[in-house]
Amino acid sequence: MVIPTYRREETLVACLRCALDQSYRPLEIIVVDQTESHKTSTIEFLDSVRDRIRLIHIATPGAVEARNCGLREAGGEIIIFIDDDTTFGPDFVSAHVAAHRRGADVVQGRVMEPGRGVSHRAQWVLPWLRVVGSNTHDQTSPTNTLTGCNFSISRNAARQVGEFDAGFSGVLIHEDADYGVRCYKIGLKMIFDADAFLMHHRDAVGGVDATMKAAMRIFEPSVLRNELYFARKHFNVLVVWQYKWRLARRLRRARAKAGLLESVSPRQLLRQADREARALLKVRNQSD
């Protein structure tokens, strides 16, 4: 189990208590810590369980590098990724393992959040880059995408897919979906398993983008760049054009709602983000 963490205290401790309480044994727990310094109470807890977890410190905050570090360091045949602001029951790991034993290469677990209802189907990325369904779904079914706060992959499958794409940076979006689409493209068996469920608390404290208001997230240049990098990496030119049109519409609506009509140009934001996305894709293609 790999748990990236950044500036989380009480929620990290609660998450680790759940991990340490798992019925499945043996279980390797790797905490990839990007926090400069913890509260005394957190340090004391981490010290008290040091013989049961592997605590790895990396200097640069970022979910991609943290997950890649976990991939490189994990020794088990099944690697489970969760976020540091989640809680789950004692059979959580067992549910992931059982899904793999039934033949899955990649397992997306159910993600519940306070106030969210149950979706009629599991999350799926359509060929024209629309996402249908949700990971709140309560039935096991196929999927072709991933949510980083709750998924697992077999060691053999991870070798085939490789690491998470470091081209996704800043305020992250789609770095996990990108990994899922890559799994799907090479023919790995991907399953959404409703029994492998956790509660995602979306802690407002900590996390790389915790200080950013949700309503303003769309205006962050790295968000738009990551959106378009994902689109250009996996979809054709027509789909990318349509996606840019939908992003522009979202920007205009958010701009009006935030009262930023004179100060923000959706066209300029998207033009700059697309230049950066195309430059990232060029570098990636040259390195392949």
Q: What is this structure's SSE topology?
A:
Blueprint: E1 2-5, H1 10-20, E2 30-33, H2 40-48, E3 54-57, H3 63-73, E4 78-82, E5 86-87, H4 92-101, E6 106-112, E7 124-125, E8 131-132, E9 141-142, E10 150-154, H5 155-161, H6 175-185, E11 190-200, H7 221-234, H8 237-258, H9 266-287
Parallel strand pairs: 1-2, 2-3, 6-11
Antiparallel strand pairs: 4-10, 5-11, 6-10, 7-8, 9-11
Helix pairs in contact: 7-8, 7-9
Give structural notes.
The chain has 288 residues and is an alpha/beta fold. The protein has 2 domains: 199 residues, Spore Coat Polysaccharide Biosynthesis Protein SpsA, Chain A, CATH 3.90.550.60; 74 residues. 41% of the residues lie in helices and 17% in strands. It is built from 9 helices and 11 strands. Strands 4, 5, 6, 9, 10 and 11 form a 6-stranded mixed β-sheet that branches. The protein has a 3-stranded parallel β-sheet with strand order 1-2-3, covered by helices on one side. Helix 7 runs antiparallel to helix 8 and helix 7 packs across helix 9. The longest helix is centred in the C-terminal third of the chain and has 22 residues. It starts with a strand and ends with a helix.
